Amino acid sequence: MHAAERESLILESLRLSGFISYRDLEAQLDASPATIRRDLSRLEEHGHIVRVHGGAKIAAPAANAAPEPQSRLTGTPFDQSITQNLAQKQAIGRAAAALCEPGEGIMIDGGTTTLQMCPCLEGLDLQVLTNSLHIVNALLPQAGTRILLPSGTLFREQNIILAPAGEDSMPRFHAPKLFMGAAAVGPRGVMQQDVILVAAERRLVDRAEQVILMVDSSKFASSSGAIVCGLDEVDTLITDSGIDPQAAAMVRRAGIELIIAQD
């Protein structure tokens, strides 16, 4: 990858997330620490970024600069995605709900697979932090379920709330378990199609004691996208019986507990 390509990727990530760590840069760019430091030095010299402890942040805009228009999320719209591999997603949702303990606090990231665990949470009296209005609507009939939401911008196609760039808008909330989906899973880690989602999910991962990944077996067919986290940060992965043996071996080699949900 040429320097110009790396710099473009760095700026794209920073424009939408506000901050990126050295570790995430190494994973996304597949470059050495020395190369990344040189890239960041050039970007800082041109006034695009500011290097800080642990990574880099976007440089403050000039006082007279016009705000950039709000981006749309890339990827498949929610209403289209929810019909894909529905039976497998429902089985994965049931298996995920079975990992919840009565009365505990959990985080559920927005997605069509994580949505499928909601009907099975009835009666557990959970506290649920979620950024998805679809998940809120699914949980509202459950009188014993306490729902918490972050602040931020609503992306209508996904019905998901994401914080403005560089802002941590999550409530003070301790949750032992994070349930999240992904656009793809591969040797480089867990990926999403939009860097806005990467920034939002990274905030959740950093707060969680356990990361529980919920993906149907089709998500192993592609390994492209922006990296949310490495496989070493995932504790449990729940998928369906269609998972390729090589993909299953990759998951187990990473030390991840693999749960095969049955239809």
TrEMBL record:
Record-linked SUPFAM superfamilies: NagB/RpiA/CoA transferase-like (SSF100950), Winged helix' DNA-binding domain (SSF46785)
Cross-referenced Pfam families: DeoRC, HTH_DeoR
Superkingdom: Bacteria
Protein keywords: DNA-binding, Transcription, Transcription regulation
Residue span, HTH deoR-type domain: 3-58
Gene Ontology molecular function, alphabetical: DNA binding; DNA-binding transcription factor activity
Annotated PANTHER family: AGA OPERON TRANSCRIPTIONAL REPRESSOR-RELATED (PTHR30363:SF44), HTH-TYPE TRANSCRIPTIONAL REGULATOR SRLR-RELATED (PTHR30363)
UniProt protein name: DeoR family transcripitonal regulator
Organism whose genome encodes this protein: Sphingobium quisquiliarum P25
